[in-house]
Amino acid sequence: MKLKIGDDFFSWDRAVVMGILNITPDSFYDGGSHNTIDEVLRHCEKLLNDGADIIDIGAFSSRPGMEIISSDEEIARLLPSLTEIKRNFPETIISIDTFRKDVAQKAIEHGAHIINDISGGDFDEEMLPYIGKNHIPYIMMHCGGKIDTLHTQKIDDDANVIVKNFFEEKCRFLSQYGEQQIILDPGIGFNKSKKANFSLLKNINDYRIDELPVLIGISRKSLIYKTLKTTPQEALNGTTVLNTIALINGADILRVHDVKEAVEAVKLVEEL
Fold first, then answer.
1. Confidence band of 36 (pLDDT split at 50, 70, 90)
2. Given 192, 229, 255, 267, which residue is catalytic?
3. What is the second-level CATH architecture of the domain 12-271?
4. Phi and psi at residue 150, in whole multiples of 5°?
5. Least crowded by CB within 10 Å, which of 64, 170, 192, 225?
């Protein structure tokens, strides 16, 4: 996988591990764990020491029942942590988990490199033109709903076809601005049935288009802990199992809370 960020190229000859850094009070697994700058920096350092290639910072929780905060509040949460991470870990590749163009623009202006949009441009009509005109590396996720129905509608049959059609439509739109850097995320756990989630995990190449890289984000999600009848806190082993399956099935990026275990999965699958 290769990304062009400014004048620099970053490339990997293996699957990439993206470490999740939530600075929200209400994320489903680690909400409230990183509410001070010191806590943010300590966790960022741990993710990097464990082998994260990219740090994905989120200031808006997309968990079931989340509070819909304003863009001003999201920016206020985000920028102090982003600024300090840039100062303390200047070589780190930083992704920002936001669906708002204003937040994305502020983050890029303050040194972020990638925008990770759970809506694939559906929640803010200004997002895709901003990404396209500026050729910003962009993670395009399929969520299949609106911001207030992220976890209530359930796609069941033909999930792979629905996701592929979505990617094709959005990529066509972005192509009018010239060559882009797009990463595809099928949005496992967002408005999809258990059957659909496992189908998307199993058949990654069915919805991959234009040989673009695919990101899989299943870390500690409900398809694991509800299947096993446990909790998010007990879902690390299940996460590692499904991450391994995702790698075998062609995933290019794993987005995870637990970087060390994901890096080990990548190394072992490489040997296969």
1. confident
2. 255
3. Alpha-Beta Barrel (3.20)
4. -60, -30
5. 64
- Measured between alpha carbons, how far apart are the two ends of the chain, in Å? 19
Q: Is 42 a catalytic residue?
A: no
What is the token pair recorded at 95? Answer: 């992704």
Closest CA to 56 of 7, 18, 4: 18
117 φ, ψ to 5°?
Answer: -110, 110
Provide the residue ranges of all domains of the chain, joining segments of one domain with +.
12-271
- Which pTM value belongs to this model? 0.93
Of the residues 172, 221, 226, 267, only one is catalytic, namely 221
Residue with tokens 């500026």: 134
Parallel, antiparallel or unpaired: strands 182-185 and 138-141:
parallel
Distance CA 2, CA 212 (A): 11
Residues in the chain: 272
CA angle 152–154–158, rounded 5-degree value = 160
- Give catalytic status of residue 106 as yes or no: no
Calculate what percentage of the chain has a pLDDT beyond 90.
Answer: 83
Compute the distance between CA of residue 234 and CA of residue 100 in angstroms, rounded to an integer. 32
State both tokens at 251: 């995933």
Residue written as tokens 């359930």?
Answer: 154
